[in-house]
Amino acid sequence: MYTAADNRYTSMRYNRSGKSGLLLPAISLGLWHNFGNADQYDNMKAIILSAFDRGITHFDLANNYGPPGGEAERNFGKMLKEALKPYRDEMIISTKAGYYMWPGPYGEWGSRKNLLASCDQSLKRMGLDYVDIFYSHRPDPHTPVEETMQALDSIVRSGKALYAGISNYSAEQTRKAAAVLKQLGTPCLIHQPRYSMLDRWVEAPGTADGKSLLDVVEEEGMGSIVFSPLAQGRLSDKYINGVPADSRIGRSLPNGAIQEKDLNEALLSNIRQLNALALNRGQTLAQMAIAWLLKDQRVTSVLVGASSIGQLENSIDALKAPAFGVDELQQIEQILSQ
To answer: Is the bond into 68 cis (omega within 30 degrees of 0)?
Structure first.
């Protein structure tokens, strides 16, 4: 029988999501690649329970996570039933819909039909009455944003989710979605974009008045939770000396997020320089990459993945980092601009 650690809230930092009443852990756990049928269930469960023991209260899923799609939710639901059910009110569980999930015209994108059916399926797979956050996983170019946001509003009003969120929306799309939800009376709690030292599109002007996505998020009173903080592993020491045979690239796994061509010598040179700077700070490169994201108060939480408890703990220990000095931030910018 699992009993959560008594000191689970002593070392984690919690940040308010925009102007809402909800606090999220600075480090959240995403169940994207390592919680499907290709992974060992006991290892997955150990990672989840260890995360909760370290103060990670937020677990992020989507209907298509696995592989195959739906398997991460099924596995997580089994863990809830076996160990975490007594702690449900201490947890933030999120899921999403929008990417391909089932055949036919209703199995993806942002129609009301897809989002409501997806929410019901996700709740069934996890054995839950509600999720804390339900996201539109990506904007739909063929469905009016009003329909997609009305679906999110319906899901919240039905009690199947407590909050609404969006993911992968541009700055302009975010501004419009937030306006629709505000008019409906269900404010958008949070945006989940891709963001890392190597992928900084959220900082670039993206609206007619030159505001970035991070600017819009702040203006709209939303939080942000960023995914791919390590740029699919490139911002770690994994590839500094070449491609290891047991990596997704080395094993040519179909669910690998990057390919060998994404690791050219110029990029590897930059990564080695960043790694040296991280070591001077007493950190791993992965820890520095996470800390670099959290230096911006508009970033509520960083979503990390983990295939082992050691990898998870390495990410959480990023919170022990000293604040960046001006010279360190300048060095990082200089390296990234090469």
So the answer is: yes
- Cβ atoms within 10 Å, residue 141: 8
Q: Which domains does the chain have, with CATH numbers?
A: 14-234+286-323 (3.20.20.100)
Q: Please state the pTM of the whole predicted model.
A: 0.94
The tokens for 93 are: 């569980």
Q: What is the 3-state secondary structure (H, E, C) of 148-208?
A: HHHHHHHHHHCCCEEEEEEECCCHHHHHHHHHHHHHHCCCEEEEECECECCECHHHCCCCC
**pLDDT score, position 321:** 86
Q: Tens digit of pLDDT for each residue in 43-90?
A: 999 999 999 999 999 999 999 999 999 999 999 999 999 999 999 999
Q: What is the structure's pLDDT at 244? A: 65
- Tell me what pLDDT residue 241 has: 78
**Regions in the chain scoring below 70 on pLDDT:** 242-262
How far apart are the C-alpha atoms of 205 and 303, rounded to whole Å? 24
Total length of the chain? 338
User: How open is the CA angle 170-173-174, to the nearest 5 degrees?
Assistant: 80
Give the HSE-up count for residue 166: Cα atoms under 13 Å, Cβ half-sphere. 32
Q: Is 93 within 8 Å of 59 (Cβ atoms)?
A: yes
DSSP secondary structure, 276-327, as one string: HHHHHTTS-HHHHHHHHHHTSTT--EEEE--SSHHHHHHHHGGGGPPPPPHH
Find out whether 250 and 217 touch, Cβ atoms under 8 Å.
no
pLDDT (0 to 100) of residue 245: 62
Q: Spell out a b/e string for 196-233, using b for 16 or more CB atoms within 10 Å of the CB, else e.
A: bbbbeebeeebbeeebbbbbbbbebebbbbbbbbbbbb
pLDDT on residue 258: 61
